[in-house]
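Give me the fold.
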Amino acid sequence: MLRSDPKGRVSKHMAKGSETLYRRAALAFVLAFPLAVAAVAPAPAQRGLQSFEKSPLGIRTADASHRFTVEVAGTARQYAQGLMYRRRLAADAGILFVYSRPQLVVMWMKNTVIPLDMLFIAADGRITRIVERTVPFSLENISSGGPVLAVLEINGGTASRLKIRTGDRVLHAAFATGGSGAR
């Protein structure tokens, strides 16, 4: 707040202080504006995003069966993209990464905005490992811990909310228990 002397005059020192304040505010705006534009504009990496086929998937737990509609990743470009850049994921949605054979899989959260639960799945559809509430944008390696045929990513907290545990079964055409065997 500026103060004036009894005659209503603002001192030169105080006027200079407010001028500095205005310059700092203007500089902050100039520096922040490109960041705000970048948050709205699509990043160069987002151009040419992969599209995915969708299919039904079920998870059978000790207490219930849960249905999801998942996108299926089966190519190198789809594996690399996954759920990157997504700001939302429906409660009953996810992405299923299906590999040609069981193998050790390492995932990460680079450019992934939303926290996820990762379910690592054996060739028979059995969940072998669950990593809950992964950290958005993290470059930390998240390992399957052993050979798996697939990884299911769903909204963070879903596994806990639905009481999904290791040993539960995933029902999908990619697994022997899903009907048509492994892809």
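The first helix runs from residue 12 to 40.
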